[in-house]
Amino acid sequence: MVKVTYVAHDGARVTVEAEPGESVMQAALSNDVEGIIGECGGAMMCATCHCYVDEAWEVGAGARAEGEEDMLEGAASEVTGRSRLSCQIKLAPELDGLVVHLPEEQL
Ligand code: FES
With CB atoms counted within 10 Å of each terminal CB, which end of the chain scores lower, N or C? Predict the structure, then answer.
């Protein structure tokens, strides 16, 4: 299992355990983590799964997927250099302990 911590905009932290291969978005939805909507189911068509990768995990989480940048332009909250679509971050054992921060709003 891979542990992922979601830090809400107000600072509240929730840590869940997910299966390797699941996305950060799927892990949030299956554990009822508030703040990730994932409207398109991971098809990179909505940007309601926007998150900010914690500074410590910026390299480990990998680069944005092709097309991710364009979709992020539609995100409801500010987009920064650490913005990712959480449906495009696939969990793997080396991401155990990953921390992502959630934006103020997704819609
Ligand atoms: S769930 Fe729609 S872009 Fe990630």
Answer: C
53 φ/ψ sector (left φ>0, alpha ψ -120 to 50, else beta): beta
Q: Which atom of ligand 1 is nearest to the CA of 40?
A: 2
pLDDT digits (tens, 9 = 90+) for 41-92: 999 999 999 999 999 999 999 999 999 999 999 999 999 999 999 999 999 9
Backbone angles phi, psi at 15, to 5 degrees: -110, 130
The fold for domain 2-101 equals Ubiquitin-like (UB roll) (3.10.20)
Nearest ligand 1 atom to the CA of 41 is 1
The model's pLDDT over 8-48, given as tens digits with 9 standing for 90+, comes to 999 999 999 999 999 999 999 999 999 999 999 999 999 99
Test site for ligand 1: of 70, 72, 87, most ligand atoms within 8 A of the Cβ: 87
Per-residue confidence (pLDDT) for residue 10, from 0 to 100: 96
Mutating to test ligand 1, I would choose from 23, 33, 44, 68 the residue with most ligand atoms within 8 A of its C-beta, which is: 44
Could you tell me the pTM of the whole model? 0.97
Domain spans of the chain, in order of start? 2-101
